[in-house]
Q: What sequence folds into this?
């Protein structure tokens, strides 16, 4: 089972790994796949993770056009968002393999990558991580929750604990794919519940695999805030582009 710890082949493309000690990601993936990750733009909206265009720093942009009004309204000064890449090829296939193909090596790779990006983001590191919970039914089908797997490896990388039972899913929403942006948020309201009072002085990292509209994370965030959380960092590997 040594391979599970130190795979000789890239978890993403299965090419041979020449130098597994080259950097922190090289024990998971080949140079070509790591290069793909490093080419992704990380200049993103601090609220929802959308890319901000080629030269946002020059214009002083920190938020996308959807989030600007909300931030200006002072609703959300203590949040932040870390996203590694757009939900496009080949990353969408990596996520699919993680979700449906039991590709746990990819989970370790992407979780570590998320941990690295969190360190690079320049914001305060979270004190603990909470993954977005999946439904009981999916957990039974797949045997694992991909967000929890990513959180485990991100947490290991930044040396923070992961609590998988602090947030639970209390019901099933209608399939999100059928709904529009506004409807999605309404559909998910009240679907998640914190299982204990949140320590207000701590910064919580809320972890998911993909941000699609942000509705799921916002619903989770609302549940954590209701339980007393003050500072929440949203962390996801991928973000669906506009
Ligand atoms: Zn590869
Ligand atoms: Zn935004």
A:
């Amino acid at each position: 089972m040594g391979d599970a710890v130190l795979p000789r082949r890239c978890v993403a493309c299965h090419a041979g790994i020449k130098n597994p000690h080259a950097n922190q990601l090289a024990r998971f993936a080949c140079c070509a796949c790591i290069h793909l990750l490093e080419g992704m733009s990380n200049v993103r909206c601090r609220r929802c993770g959308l890319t901000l265009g080629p030269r946002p720093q020059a214009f002083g942009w920190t938020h996308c056009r959807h989030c600007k009004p909300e931030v200006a309204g002072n609703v959300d000064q203590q949040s932040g968002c870390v996203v590694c890449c757009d939900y496009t090829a080949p990353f969408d296939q990596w996520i699919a393999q993680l979700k449906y193909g039991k590709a746990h090596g990819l989970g370790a790779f992407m979780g570590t990558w998320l941990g690295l990006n969190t360190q690079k983001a320049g914001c305060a590191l979270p004190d603990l991580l909470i993954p977005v919970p999946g439904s009981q039914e999916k957990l039974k089908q797949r045997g694992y929750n991909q967000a929890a797997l990513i959180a485990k490896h991100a947490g290991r990388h930044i040396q923070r604990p992961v609590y998988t039972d602090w947030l639970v899913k209390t019901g099933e929403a209608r399939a999100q794919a059928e709904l529009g942006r506004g409807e999605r948020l309404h559909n998910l309201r009240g679907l998640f519940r914190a299982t204990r009072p949140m320590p207000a002085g701590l910064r919580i990292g809320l972890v998911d695999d993909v941000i699609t509209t942000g509705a799921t994370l916002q619903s989770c965030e609302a549940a954590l805030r209701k339980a007393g959380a003050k500072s929440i960092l949203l962390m996801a590997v991928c973000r669906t582009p506009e």
Notes: The mean pLDDT is 86. The longest helix spans residues 104-120.
